[in-house]
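Hi support team,

I'm filing this because I wasn't sure whether my run with nicotinamide-adenine-dinucleotide finished correctly. The job status page said complete, but I'd like someone to confirm that the output block is well-formed before I use it downstream. Pasting the exact inputs I used:
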Amino acid sequence: MTVAAPPIARLTNFINGQWNDSHSSEWRDVVNPATGETLASVPMGDAADVNAAVEAAAAAFPEWRRTPPEDRIQPLFKLKMLLEEHIDDIARIITTENGKTFAEAKAEMRRAIENVEVACGIPIMMQGYNLEDVARGIDEIMIRQPLGVVAAIVPFNFPGMIAFWYLPYAIATGNTFILKPSERVPLTMRCVYELLEKIGLPKGVVNLANGGKTAVDALIDHPKVRAISFVGSTPVARYIYARSAEKGKRCQCQGGAKNHVIVLPDADMPMATQIISDSAFGCAGQRCLAVSVAVTIGEAQKTFRDSIADAASTLKVGNGLQDGVQMGPVITPQSKQRIESLIAAGEKQGARVLLDGRNTKIPKHESGNFVKPTILDDVPATSELADTEIFGPVLSLIHADDLDQALNFLGRSAYGNQASLFTSSGSAARRFRYEAPAGNIGINIGVAAPMAYFPFSGWKNSFFGDLHGQGRDAIEFYTDKKVVVERWAKEQSRKF
Ligand code: NAD
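And here is everything the job wrote out:
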């Protein structure tokens, strides 16, 4: 007797408090990048799906906006408890659809929870300010009010965390919310929305519409959507920013990255090596804050090169659900191919392949998209590769004579997501902090990811907009300021 394989789950959208079928006839497979196994089928939603989500969110807005902030945050306290309770289940889903290790997936969910905790402070954070007697008998008050329907479009590399840069703040400030997850990793948010169903939010306050470009365009073009948040690659970020501006929308778009670390000879080399190795190769290099270029100065060229090659060559690569695995696969076969061809391009442009992770096969995972840690030495600073986002486990080494020259390299980069320095010199660190042209700065830190109560910054082609995700910026982004100037005639007041 043959046993039929279980049917592949066909994903639905969460609209107006219910799971609804998509109107779309186009579907994509969701594939486990470690095994090649198809996990589910996701609808590539169309304008009808998006319209239904926007109408539900718009209908929920007037009552939700009138709900006192103290009451609006009660569901978030419940959400925190549920996320804590289910963190292992969610992390397992993240690993299965994204490939990162279980420990990395769990760490990602901790950052998600942290954002829920911070948004619980909305009754204080959303307060405006006021001044009596701006002129005799006249008072002035600044009040923050929610915008209405807001939407977020998120990438594949943090299936659990990035939606939380937006969702908790958006709803706590009184907006209603639509999420468009990445079509490559939609299962994590399906699980999160199953928890959101249980926390007592009124129907339509949070909605989820699956899809790709068509759904994104429909969100941007819908007149009832007031604000768009985006995280993803630079060309798409630029496109969404321009299209949103054309439609008169508030917009914040995080883009791609090429992050530099400068290693001075006075750095604690064992510590620097460990931390930079984690940054470059953790999450298979698919982190927007992954270090991808190490600029060594003086004798650090040799000491760091030798020690990073040692550390990288010992990393255990495999299925992120297995114990002891330190690095998982990259997201798709196309991504593996692109990374391998960029390594070859680097070689052609003059780099020397010090550690070669191409053509990796992991036993029992022959269909997985594995690239082992790769190090390119002597990458010419002016080569195309030196400023191309690889988004894989590839670290380029460049040598500089001094900090001036190293800062010059950073200045030339089109990106400005993160820059780090490893040193034991306070004055070098201060100079770096002052001059480095990036939004997130690390001093002896490899992944300078801001905590939820700070903005997740980014400069140059890594960010289009002015207000970032997380913390106080999120409150600014999700509220309109209303200024009231008030005078009451004396006689009128005296009647009472
Ligand atoms: P992506 O740009 O391909 O996709 C991001 C989102 O945009 C997805 O939801 C996708 O469906 C949608 N999308 C894709 N193409 C579109 C188009 N033409 N028009 C409209 N929408 C479109 O990015 P990705 O591959 O999912 O994620 C990796 C990228 O994200 C990397 O470049 C990485 O650096 C960047 N990233 C940046 C940050 C940051 O904070 N700056 C954080 C995480 C990831």
